[in-house]
Amino acid sequence: MPQIHITYTPNLPSQSQLESFVIQIHKSVSPLISSDATNFKTYLTPIERSVIGLADKEKAVMHIDFRMFAGRSAAIKQEVAKTILALAKNTFSQPNGVETEITLEVGNLDNDNYHKVIVNQ
């Protein structure tokens, strides 16, 4: 059920670890929000061009947009954020790597307007 969109700049360190990072998110957050990890959906979108700040130094950026059905408390959302950011820090930290800013927004899907169909089962 969670819909996760991850966008990142081309200079993000450890890009080869993106898929394993996503699986870690699915496994770690699933028990926090009482949702089966097989229902998580994550979309990885590289950003081809971007301008960070005044473009005066090299900086990598990753933004994670995590959406789930409403009904979770603020404390659960904070725990989700803390868990994902800790996983990101562990995955993308590199000695002497490019400075990397990782941001995260945890929010709700609109329950009344979220629709799903499964075909070809």
Structural commentary:
This protein has 121 residues and is an alpha/beta fold. The protein has a four-stranded mixed sheet, covered by helices on one side. It starts with a strand and ends in a 12-residue tail after the last strand. The protein has helices at residues 18-33, 74-92; strands at 3-8, 41-46, 60-69, 100-109. Helix 1 packs antiparallel against helix 2 (74-92). The radius of gyration is 16 Å and the shape is globular.
Top keywords for this entry?
121 residues; 2 helices; 4 strands; globular
Q: Give the topology string: H per helix, E per strand.
A: EHEEHE
Strand order of the largest sheet: 2-1-3-4
Low-confidence stretches: none
The Cα radius of gyration reads 16 Å
- Give the terminus-to-terminus CA distance: 18 Å
> What structural class is derived from the secondary structure elements?
alpha/beta
According to DSSP, the number of beta strands is: 4
The number of helical elements comes to 2
Summarize the biggest pleated sheet. 4 strands, mixed
Q: Write down the overall geometry.
A: globular
What fraction strand?
Answer: 25-35%
The average pLDDT is: 94
Percent helix: 25-40%
